[in-house]
Amino acid sequence: GRRLVRRARCVLPCAADRNRGRPDIVVRPRHLMLLLALGLLAGSCAYYNTFYLARKYYFKATNGEPYAVDKLATTASGDLVKSIDMSKKVMANYPKSKWVDDAYLLWARALLGRDDPRETVNMLQDFAVRFPGSDLGDEVLFYLGVGYRQSHRPGEAEKSFATFLERASKSPLAPYAWLERSRALATLDRDSAAAFCAGQVLERFPKSRLGPLALAQRAEARLGAGEYAAAQADFQALGLSARDDEERFTFLLREVDCLEGARDYDGALAVLRRELAMQRPPEVAVGQETPAAYKPTPGGDRYGRVLLRIGTADLMAERRDEALEAYREVARLYPKSPLSAEAQYRLGYALETSAEDFDGARVEYARVAEQFANSQFVAQARSRITNLARMAEFRTGEGATLQKRAEAGFLLAEIFLFQQNKPERALEEYGRVAAEFAGTPWAGKALTAQAWVLARRLDRQAAADSLLWRVVREYPATEAQLAARDYLEGAGVAVPETLIRLPAEPAPALTDTARLTPPP
Fold it and tell me: Within 10 A of 129 (CB to CB), how many other CB atoms are there?
């Protein structure tokens, strides 16, 4: 088109020069038709060139991808602004051109790169109304799904991608749709389905540039779904093809997560010790009473990070002394640093959860802030100190009331259950409360809590139901009886109304009718 326009610009003036001064020569109709066609062609090229530039700037910003697939890869914001401006120009100057719907869609896509997915959704939701004859419906559905997912609407995103894949399974955007659908499903905690969708990218499109992203997505989804062996294999493959050593190290730690999830603590320790042998410990000055703060260097903290994970794996394997030794070594090698603060916190956690040395744990928690005041573990340590101090106050306070002693028992059980993930120890504490305060509402509450742990954490529904029936029969007119009835009926078991007695309502406060003498 541009060649014809340039040619016309050269030819037409020459013809005019030849005809100048010769009125006997007239322009024939076919010449008029040619001029008209060239005029139309020039206008067509003008709006196509504008749209061409809009696309050029867009793909320059996204490095040739349909959109910014990997958020870690930054897009050129200036080029996206130029793309949006050119797209708007096509729509404003050539509203009846065949590229106007393409320009509108390109504008909406550019907004994704500028972190404005909500506006992308607003633009594309009524695309079919704006452009009823457009053949871009499938592409619009895909980018609408991307906008939904990036604006934290995973349910609508998953539906959009599912519909797109049904309608356009052979589209060039299909591998991107499988990956985005996997991401939406993972957000919805549907990890098995997310792993399947990520796997479709690898199986159906083995040469796709999305391969590494899809493999990482499948590995995370498999780990979330509890498919530890398969997830470990994926993380191993990712580590072998890592772009740099830091990425390889990250995938190695995720492989350890898989082994710990499968409770293969010896396997996790073997991987960690091999990695520890490859890392170099920091140099520590000998003989200083107060060691200088650790000065971070690139990759210099890896030895400590591996040693921390070794301590955690030892603690999970119930080797408390080895775990404590690892944590103390990290605190020694990396003084006054985020690593030493984490090690100090884990020291307290190990004493609290494994040794049940609550006094010792409080001492170690108190030292976290001394190591590194800005550490994220400082707030967690303070919270645990508060819980332990409250429990100690209830259990050892002079003249402790019945209520305080019972509350101390419940607090300890909840620490075991929710903070330490030890349902068996929580059962023991609830049982102690039920025995010590038998016949009181506290005992009924403790038995109901035991039933909850048995049913929800240990999958022992029959034992839970037995305790709930005991509460219904032996603790009438209590909140525990009502809770036990609700749990039973929630499981489909009918409880006779004749057994249920509502708790007595407290007497209302007396109205003060005394009249004070008005002040002078």
Answer: 7
Over the stretch 94-139, which tens digit does the pLDDT of each residue have? 888 888 999 999 999 999 999 999 999 999 999 999 999 899 999 9
239-265 as b/e: b if 16+ CB within 10 A: beeeeeeeeebebbbbbbbbbbbbebb
Q: How far apart are CA 455 and CA 115, in angstroms?
A: 45
Report how many helices (DSSP H) and strands (DSSP E) the chain contains, helices first. Answer: 25, 0
Long-range CB contacts (within 8 A, 24+) of 88-96: 89/50, 89/54, 90/47, 90/50, 90/51, 90/54, 93/47, 93/50, 94/46, 94/47, 94/50
Distance CA 511, CA 509 (A): 6
Distance of alpha carbon 433 from alpha carbon 408, whole angstroms: 9
CA-to-CA distance for 444 and 488, rounded, in angstroms?
15
Do the Cβ atoms of 54 and 106 come closer than 8 Å? yes
Longest dimension (CA), the chain: 127
CA distance 227 to 215: 14
Dist CA 146 CA 126 (whole Å): 16
Query: Quick one: pLDDT at residue 18?
Result: 35
Task: Tell me which residue has tokens 């590995």.
Answer: 219
Gap between the Cα atoms of 460 and 453, Å rounded: 9
Q: Is this prediction's pTM over 0.85?
A: no
Residue 505's φ and ψ, nearest 5 degrees, are: -75, 140
The C-alpha atoms of residue 143 and residue 157 are separated, in whole angstroms, by 10
Quote the CA–CA distance of 358 and 349 in Å, as a whole number: 9
Q: Which of 135, 199, 198 is closest to 171 using CA atoms? A: 135
Cα separation, 99 vs 47, in Å, equals 8
Q: 392 or 102: which carries more pLDDT confidence?
A: 102
Beta strands in 254-378 (DSSP E): none
Contact 420, 353 (CB under 8 A): yes
d(C-alpha 307, C-alpha 371), whole Å: 18
> What is the token pair recorded at 284?
């520590």
- Locate 350 and state its tokens: 């190990």
Is the sign of the CA dihedral 298, 300, 302, 308 positive or negative? negative
Calculate the average pLDDT of the chain: 86
